[in-house]
Amino acid sequence: MRKAEKTKQFIIEKTAPIFNTKGYSGTSMSDITNATNLTKGSIYGNFENKDEVAVAAFKFNVKKLHDVLSREIEKQRTFKEKLLVYPRLYSNYSELEVTIGGCPVLNTAIESDDTHPILKKYAEKTLLYWKEKLMYLINQGIAAGEFKANDIDPEKTALTIIAIIEGAVMISKLTGSAKDLSSIMVSLFKIIEDLV
């Protein structure tokens, strides 16, 4: 990596937790300069504006989460086991220490829905990618004879899995209770078990 690329990566890594915790509106330029110990000029020498830093931070947070999930999914042999990675890992989301501040998709989607079209676009693309990935696993499970072919709508099931996960994360954040998250993930385990 060249020095400029290293600096850019450093800025992203240092600001990603701040954007994910405080959101775009709540993150000030002072937050960015304090976290990086760089001047405003150094930040703007690497990024055109705060929007560009926020998008890079979002992508970084999503990649971290995606990489953890993908590694665990690849270790599993059956498609049911692959789907069960989601409730298993999200049951202990705070212990994963993947992204400080919770799920970046949920955080960004909620904050940007009416206020930040650029971030909203990236959150939407991430959500659609997640849906496609889940649909792929479900369709592969059907093709392999693991899941009931006639009783499953892959898109509806994928969206239900996402809605349960994100709803559980939101409830857990509001209540401050990891127990709430775990309890809801038990329901998701059952939904996936019932696909067989």
From TrEMBL:
UniProt key word Cytoplasm: no
Regions recorded as binding DNA: 28-47
InterPro entries the UniProt entry points to: Homeodomain-like_sf, HTH_TetR, Tet_transcr_reg_TetR-rel_C_sf, TetR_C
Superkingdom to which the source organism belongs: Bacteria
UniProt key word Ribonucleoprotein: no
Gene3D superfamilies per UniProt: Tetracycline Repressor, domain 2
One Pfam family, short name: TetR_C_13
Domain HTH tetR-type: 5-65
This protein's UniProt keywords: DNA-binding, Transcription, Transcription regulation
GO molecular function, one term: DNA binding
Protein name in UniProt: Transcriptional regulator, TetR family
